[in-house]
Amino acid sequence: MTFTFRPVDPPKDAGLLHSWVTHPKAAFWMMQDATVRDVERAYAGIAADEHHHALLGLREGEPVFLMEKYDPAHRELVGLYEPRPGDIGMHFLTPPTDRPVHGFTRAVITAVMAHLFEDPEVRRVVVEPDVRNTAVHALNAAVGFVPEREIRKPEKTALLSFCTRERFAAATGVAA
Questions:
Q1: Rounded to whole angstroms, how far apart are CA atoms 2 and 119?
Q2: How many CB atoms lie within 10 A of CB 54?
Q3: Cα 102 to the chain's mean position, in Å?
Q4: Phi, psi at residue 65, to the nearest 5°?
Q5: Does the predicted TM-score (pTM) go above 0.85?
Q6: Which of 2, 50, 74, 91 has the largest CB neighbor count within 10 A?
């Protein structure tokens, strides 16, 4: 599967994103009660933030997933671990579907990681999913993430995990 990326356009994309982030499948996204306006405001805030970026993953020009990347020295993980030069944080969300495609989510996380490692400055990807989100832990492991420890964030207990270029390449066969 081939994907391209474009920045989220909050006014244009808020309705679509709302349908994704409020679905029960997206419970760990923690926006279940958000209105379309709440989603637009949240992503307008990200669009204005130099340390946080939201991108839509496109397949044949159509949005098929959401990814966020952030500088963990300035967002999400400040004070919770010691960031290294070249660290980048990441979140991704695949939307609900009535017609699941076998291997789609793994293809998405692989594409997200390859996209992040396209930046030569990125040495390591950091994630902090909810400790209860076993499905994403398995996906993370499949692309080379190694859990370090649990951390307590205001909204959740998270599993702090890291993936280097070398681990990603070894796990996926994709050059990073």
A1: 19
A2: 22
A3: 20
A4: -165, 165
A5: yes
A6: 91
